[in-house]
């Protein structure tokens, strides 16, 4: 569980770094990469917490 939390944190950090690079360079590829990274990270986090909730209930 600690490893998964660390991976989510690192993915969020990568997304933030992409947005910072977009602000500094104005290149759309960094914004696109940041949005994709953020969406996949949020999806993984929701699935992870859904599994935890199901395990608690069952």
Describe this structure in words.
The chain is mainly α. It has one domain. Helices cover 93% and strands 0% of the residues. The chain is built from 2 helices and no strands. Helix 1 runs antiparallel to helix 2. The radius of gyration is 14 Å and the shape is elongated.
Structure keywords:
58 residues; mainly alpha; 2 helices; 0% strand
What does this entry show, briefly?
It is built from two helices and no strands. It has helices spanning 2-25, 28-57.
- The end-to-end distance, rounded to whole angstroms, is 19 Å
Order of helices and strands: HH
Number of domains: 1
Shape verdict: elongated
Query: Which percent bin holds the helix content?
Result: over 70%
Radius of gyration: 14 Å
User: What summary fits the major beta sheet?
Assistant: none
Mean pLDDT: 94
Helix vs. strand class: mainly alpha
What would you call the quaternary organization? single chain
Number of strands: 0
SS summary, helix count = 2
Strand content: under 5%
Give unreliable regions as ranges.
none
How do the strands and helices of this protein lay out in sequence?
Layout (H helix, E strand, L loop, with lengths): L1 H24 L2 H30 L1
Helix pairs in contact: 1-2
